[in-house]
Amino acid sequence: MIAKPDWLRVKAPQRERVSNVKTILRDLELNTVCEEASCPNIGECFNVGTATFLIMGPACTRACPYCDIDFEKKPKALDPSEPLRLAEAVRRLQLNHVVITSVNRDDLPDGGASQFVRCIEEIRHISPQTTIEVLIPDLCGNWEALAKILKAEPEVLNHNTETIPRLYRKIRPQGNYERSLQLLRCTRELAPWIYTKSGIMVGLGETDGEVKAVMQDLRAVECDILTIGQYLQPSPKHLKVKEFITPAQFNAWRELGESLGFIQVVSTPLTRSSYHAEEIKKIMELYPRDKSASISV
What we know:
Layout: H1 15-27, E1 31-32, H2 33-36, H3 42-47, E2 52-55, H4 82-93, E3 97-102, H5 113-126, E4 131-135, H6 143-151, E5 156-158, H7 168-171, H8 177-190, E6 195-202, H9 208-220, E7 225-230, H10 247-260, E8 264-267, H11 280-286
Helix pairs in contact: 4-5, 5-6, 6-8, 9-10
């Protein structure tokens, strides 16, 4: 096993603040990707009173060998009270920006799109000043389901490409690289005012040239925001880390991404797809979008 370098060490969280957030989450019976996916930034995010909510879970219908979220062949039926409980958590935590993600629900005809819509609607009702980012699965290529989510008008539509095409069969066996790019392309075509975002993890055997190619592919579909972070092995049963990428290389990728035209590139060893997601407020001020230009969905 490769030794973890010093730059991947994180500070211990303030227990009181973390405990307060966890109390609210447990009280409302909500899941977060921070906990379910063993995110290394859980302390930092909980300390500032933010979380990425994981809906329709915690069980996932896919078994990606890099991911620490539970896998079950027969996930539970959707909980109609979940959207309201999530909105209440946003109110209690006084969130300016919220990220909503989900497990894959390939068992549902729309992949769970309707549950995303209900969550957005409830948050709009109870906390209208909160901006919303949805980090969605590929919906098995169901673009009508995607249109449902876009019609609910989240500020950000995030879908991770996760890795390079050559490693998809190994890392994301039930995913499809071209399908992920098409999802982002469709979002831009259907609702051009929505900011699109994607992320990749590195350290699994990709080359610098392959990372650059993915970045170019994402810009070709007009993806706005990119996150790049180091893959960390959640447990011995998951894929092993091939390489720990240096902070200098992450900085080089950030500079490359900016030169390619991304309006924001977050590229550090500890970056995750929703890390510092609240900075969308600044992006919206610097790069405003005209909603009247959006295509009816």
